[in-house]
């Protein structure tokens, strides 16, 4: 999916967001969160504005943004499916489960289905180790997943 907001609007709205955080200590993460909330992602044009407002290099801002897996450079689909890739989930079939959903959706990690319905993201621990394998769908945790349960979650997104 592609952001449908003119670059000048991204710059102006990002500047307003950044200005609202300049008086707090450690404003970068709150700014990134608010920009993503505003646009559904953190566009390249926003990185330039944030860097200028905080007197940082674009590389520093990009480095922080890319370190945290929840920030994205392009808007997500209408639904986001995050599948745990940590050891506990892998030890009880998470890899097979993940491969099955990737094939069923026809996309890879960090991709969105062509219809814009689902974005698939890997995560490294959802804190449900005792209920592995686990996933998060639109912010809701699901544990003890198998093919049928995960297929049901994905099918629900189509409605």
Automatic annotation (TrEMBL):
Q: Which cofactor does it need?
A: [2Fe-2S] cluster
Organism field: Roseibium marinum
**Family per UniProt?**
Belongs to the complex I 24 kDa subunit family.
As to how many cofactors bind and how, the note says:
Binds 1 [2Fe-2S] cluster.
Tell me which UniProt keywords the record has, alphabetically: 2Fe-2S, Iron, Iron-sulfur, Metal-binding
Taxonomy, top ranks, is: Bacteria, Pseudomonadati, Pseudomonadota, Alphaproteobacteria, Hyphomicrobiales
NCBIfam families, A to Z: PRK05988.1
Q: Reply yes or no: does the keyword Metal-binding apply.
A: yes
InterPro entries of this UniProt entry? NADP_DH_HndA-like, NuoE-like, NuoE_N, Thioredoxin-like_sf
Q: Which domain of life is it from?
A: Bacteria
Tell me which residues bind [2Fe-2S] cluster: 84, 89, 125, 129
Q: Which GO molecular function terms does the record list? A: 2 iron, 2 sulfur cluster binding; metal ion binding; oxidoreductase activity
Q: What's the name of the protein?
A: Formate dehydrogenase subunit gamma
């Amino acid at each position: 999916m592609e952001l449908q907001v003119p670059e000048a609007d991204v710059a102006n709205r990002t500047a307003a967001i950044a200005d609202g955080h300049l008086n707090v200590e450690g404003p970068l993460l709150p700014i990134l969160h608010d920009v993503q909330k505003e646009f559904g992602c953190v566009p390249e044009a926003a990185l330039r504005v944030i860097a200028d407002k905080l007197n940082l290099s674009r590389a520093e801002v990009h480095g922080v943004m890319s370190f945290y897996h929840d920030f994205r450079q392009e808007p997500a689909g209408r639904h986001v499916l995050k599948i745990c890739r940590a050891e506990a989930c892998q030890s009880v079939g998470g890899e097979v489960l993940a491969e099955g959903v990737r094939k069923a959706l026809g996309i890879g990690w960090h991709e969105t289905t062509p219809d814009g319905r689902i974005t698939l993201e890997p995560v490294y621990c959802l804190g449900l180790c005792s209920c592995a394998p686990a996933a998060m769908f639109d912010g809701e945790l699901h544990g003890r997943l198998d093919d049928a349960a995960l297929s049901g979650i994905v099918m629900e997104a189509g409605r």
